[in-house]
């Protein structure tokens, strides 16, 4: 993004989005609440620490705003600094604070999450899994620790695998979520679903997710995977 466009975007964002935005985080284990926002802005999604917005006039840009009192902005800014410009990740154009709102201006990633691909019966090519593997290896080469990489945090975009959420890539504790997803892909998806894809009901997906969480946090399942509540 050129400097003039970025400066204009920041000015508009401060005068509109950040002037009216009200975020509330009641429980760090649940998504934050967007209590108020300008009508001309659109909500892309809400996580446990931040929400993401875009303006229809600049649909290729996203603004991630952290809820008051929630940590993570400085860490995520550092992760994007290390990632730099890589096709499998977003790019951070600017990070700042205004009226108590800590925000990141990012290149908007558009695609379909692997989770939604399974829900809708859309084929997930093996090359997409390989793309994400290579992207995570790149992150490691930059001194980062891929964390919280699961089906809702990776996408297929134009036939390529991309990583959406890198906010926890400074956490050094082991995380097996991506390895576990690949095992499910190789042992279940490839032999049974890849050739004759069918839509999987969301209640089935939620049951699998809850079962996975229980196994990982039970005494028998160990504690290799963290951040499942995000």
Automatic annotation (TrEMBL):
Domain of life: Bacteria
Stretches assigned to the Protein kinase domain: 38-230
Entries under Gene3D superfamilies matching the protein: Transferase(Phosphotransferase) domain 1
InterPro entries linked: Kinase-like_dom_sf (IPR011009), Meiotic_Drive_Suppr_Kinase (IPR052396), Prot_kinase_dom (IPR000719)
Record's protein name: Protein kinase domain-containing protein
């Amino acid at each position: 993004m050129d400097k003039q466009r970025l400066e204009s975007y920041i000015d508009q964002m401060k005068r509109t989005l950040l002037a009216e935005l009200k975020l509330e985080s009641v429980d760090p284990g649940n998504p934050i609440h967007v209590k108020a926002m300008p009508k001309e802005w659109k909500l892309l999604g809400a996580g446990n620490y931040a929400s993401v917005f875009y303006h229809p006039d600049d649909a290729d840009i996203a603004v991630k705003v952290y809820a008051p009192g929630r940590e993570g902005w400085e860490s995520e800014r550092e992760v994007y600094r290390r990632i730099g410009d890589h096709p499998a990740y977003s790019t951070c154009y600017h990070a700042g604070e205004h009226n108590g709102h800590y925000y990141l201006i990012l290149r908007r990633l558009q695609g379909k999450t692997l989770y939604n691909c399974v829900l809708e019966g859309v084929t997930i090519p093996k090359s997409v899994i390989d793309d994400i593997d290579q992207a995570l290896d790149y992150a490691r080469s930059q001194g980062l620790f891929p964390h919280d990489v699961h089906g809702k945090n990776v996408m297929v975009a134009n036939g390529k695998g991309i990583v959406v959420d890198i906010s926890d890539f400074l956490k050094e504790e082991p995380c097996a979520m991506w390895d576990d997803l690949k095992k499910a892909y190789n042992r279940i998806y490839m032999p049974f679903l890849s050739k004759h894809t069918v839509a999987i009901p969301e209640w089935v997906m939620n049951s699998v997710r809850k079962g996975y969480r229980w196994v990982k946090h039970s005494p028998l399942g160990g504690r290799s995977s963290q951040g499942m509540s995000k």
